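testing teh design pipeline on a random one, pls ignore if ur not involved
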């Protein structure tokens, strides 16, 4: 099947994929076991926060997220051109409205993770998203920067600026973070803890919510895990090289939902208005919603990421996020 070729897609062609950075690092076979353990433990999955039951007898929690990247995909590496910028602008001009209309017609809440520059370029998006009163805004970096390429001070400064700009443009203070391209640096978790985030959604160790550990210690930070299978960007390769037909993509998502429903866990899907907002692709989301509503009528909890994070925090008696102790920067290995 075409979608099994994901690993072969040139990373720069894909909106969210991780570009390969040149490295002078020693290969793993030259490491001591101490180094292996230290690196692995920097950020790792801790206890599961899967609740015994979801609210109102629901069998499954469904979390839809939209990463509103738009022009920042073209801007982040500093070599934008009119063509790639216009592909991004489609997100605010056309894609977002189509997505929000579908959600609002079905009374489904969603979370919109937005790079602050993306919203500053099209501030009217905030009102479109706010209209129903159901949706959440989350932080998605300043200009979709790649965290692993930044020194701690720059990553921290960009994120601080991103939070204040997003708060100004939306009128609400975000509580959740998603790393651009899910690119999480060794400093990211410390910065998120210092800046008061309550949940994070960029890592992939489970399908159920879990607590993040930092250097082996519990943090009180809720992780709502993602996966490339559950992301529209790799499946809808914009160059058409390994393009997956939207109806086939819908089937992947439907199968993922069916298993989540059977197991009573969580279904978290990441999409992008500039990708899934196209006419032929919105069909995939429509098919998914139709399937969920038919199969799980009354037994599905559609919720924002923040609502799920707070629910599982309470059910697991996780308490508040724990303040970090130690130096301002612990990125050094
Ligand atoms: Zn993104």
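output:
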């Amino acid at each position: 099947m075409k979608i099994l070729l994901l690993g072969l897609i040139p990373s720069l062609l894909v909106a969210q994929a991780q570009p390969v950075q040149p490295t002078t690092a020693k290969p793993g076979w030259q490491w001591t076991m101490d180094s292996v353990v230290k690196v692995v433990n920097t950020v790792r999955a801790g206890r599961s926060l899967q609740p015994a039951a979801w609210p109102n007898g629901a069998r499954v929690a469904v979390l839809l997220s939209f990463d509103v990247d738009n022009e920042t995909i073209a801007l982040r590496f500093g070599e934008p051109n009119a063509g790639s910028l216009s592909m991004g602008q489609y997100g605010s001009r056309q894609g977002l409205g189509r997505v929000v209309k579908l959600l609002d017609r079905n009374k489904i809440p969603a979370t919109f993770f937005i790079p602050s520059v993306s919203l500053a370029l099209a501030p009217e998006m905030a009102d479109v998203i706010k209209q129903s009163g159901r949706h959440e805004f989350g932080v998605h970096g300043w200009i979709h920067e790649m965290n692993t390429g930044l020194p701690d001070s720059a990553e921290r400064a960009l994120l601080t600026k991103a939070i204040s700009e997003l708060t100004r443009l939306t009128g609400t203070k975000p509580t959740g973070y998603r790393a651009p391209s899910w690119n999480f640096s060794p400093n990211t978790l410390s910065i998120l803890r210092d800046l008061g985030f309550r949940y994070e959604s960029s890592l992939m160790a489970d399908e159920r919510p879990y607590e993040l550990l930092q250097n082996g210690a519990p943090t009180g930070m809720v992780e709502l895990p993602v996966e490339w299978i559950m992301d529209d960007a790799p499946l809808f390769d914009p160059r058409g090289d390994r393009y997956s037909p939207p109806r086939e993509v819908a089937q992947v998502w439907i199968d993922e939902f069916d298993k989540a429903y059977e197991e009573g866990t969580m279904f978290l899907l990441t999409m992008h208005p500039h990708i899934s907002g196209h006419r032929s692709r919105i069909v995939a989301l429509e098919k998914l919603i139709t399937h969920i509503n038919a199969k799980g009528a009354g037994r599905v909890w559609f919720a924002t990421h923040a609502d799920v994070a707070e629910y599982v925090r309470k059910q697991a008696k996780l308490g508040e996020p724990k303040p970090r102790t130690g130096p301002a920067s612990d990125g050094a290995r």
